[in-house]
Amino acid sequence: MKNLNIKRVCCGIILEDRRVLIARRNDVNFKGLWEFPGGKVMEGESDKACLERELMEELNIKTQAGDFFCEVFHSYSGFEIHLLAYYAKIEQGKPKLSEHSEIEWVSFSDLNNYNFLVADIPIVDKLSKLY
Question: In whole angstroms, what is the distance from residue 112 CA to residue 125 CA?
Fold first, then answer.
């Protein structure tokens, strides 16, 4: 039986000029924490389609989801998350705020200076080692 408390979420690793795009959450539960932008996979939706849809909804950018980067399993209070990170390339538009309080292009060496959601920290660690 499928565990309904596990949320499948996809996030984008969007690179530009040796920097990565991050977004600061504006919701009640995780307000002020940084993340790699993305969102929950809908029933019947592929991971890549989810990521492209979420990036359009959240940042008003048309993207092409690319190669798989990594996955993270994390337990928050009351639910678990299965976070899948994919590279994504902006095909049209420039990121605009709608659901987040801030967005920033950050160098890989500066990523550790931001207070990320716990589930995103393994992604930060992997990016910091690779770049």
Answer: 8
Residue 81 carries which side chain, given as an amino acid letter? I
- Contact call for residues 60 and 66 (beta carbons, < 8 A): no
Residue 115 half-sphere exposure toward CB, CA atoms < 13 A: 5
How confident is the model over 108-128, as pLDDT tens digits? Answer: 999 999 999 999 999 999 999
The secondary element (H helix, E strand) that includes residue 66 is strand 62-76
Query: Tokens 């969102």 identify what position?
Result: 39
Look at the alpha carbons of 68, 6, 124, 57 in this order and tell me if their dihedral is positive or negative: positive
* Cβ proximity of 80 and 101 under 8 Å: no
